[in-house]
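Just wondering, can you check both lines?
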Amino acid sequence: MDDPRKLARRARRLRWRLNFYPPYIGAGIHVQSISPDLRQIKVRLGLGWFNRNYVGTQFGGSLYSMVDPFYMLMLMELLGRDYIVWDKAASIDFITPGKGPVFAELRIDDQLLADIREHTAGGKKYLPRLQVDIRDAAGELVAQVDKTLYVRLKPQARQA
C-alpha cells in the first residue's frame, strides 16, 4: 500500500478533477468528499432543469452516472498498478422517483481488498459484485445500483 500522504494527495486531486469534469458539471453531480484513504466517496446529484425528465424527476441516466466510475477508480488506486480493474456489468433498480437532491456513499473495506487479492493471486480473474444505494435528503431509497467489476493481476505481476 502507498504512503498515506500520497494517497490523501491523490484523493484530493481526484475529487478536484471529478468536480470540474464537464459531464459531471452538466449533470449536476458533485463529489462531496473522498476520504484520505480513498475508501469512501460521497456524491450528490442536484435536481435542475438540465437533469429533470418530462415528469419532473431525476433522469435515470443521471442517477446511474453519479455512481458509475467510483468503485473502479477506488480499486485502481487501492490495489495499485499491478492490477487490471474494469467495470464489467451494472444494473439499476429504480425504487422511487428522485424529486430533489439525492446522495450516494460508496465504501471499500478491508475484507473486499483481501478477497480480491486472494482470488487473483494465481492469475485468475475475479468478478466482485458491489452495491450502492442512492437516497434522497430524507434518507428514502431512490435507486439501488449493482456493479460487477473485473479484477486481475497484470501478466508481469503474475510472473514476479
About this structure: The beta strands are 29-34, 40-45, 83-94, 102-107, 129-136, 141-153. The first helix runs from residue 4 to 19. The chain has a mean pLDDT of 94. The radius of gyration is 17 Å.
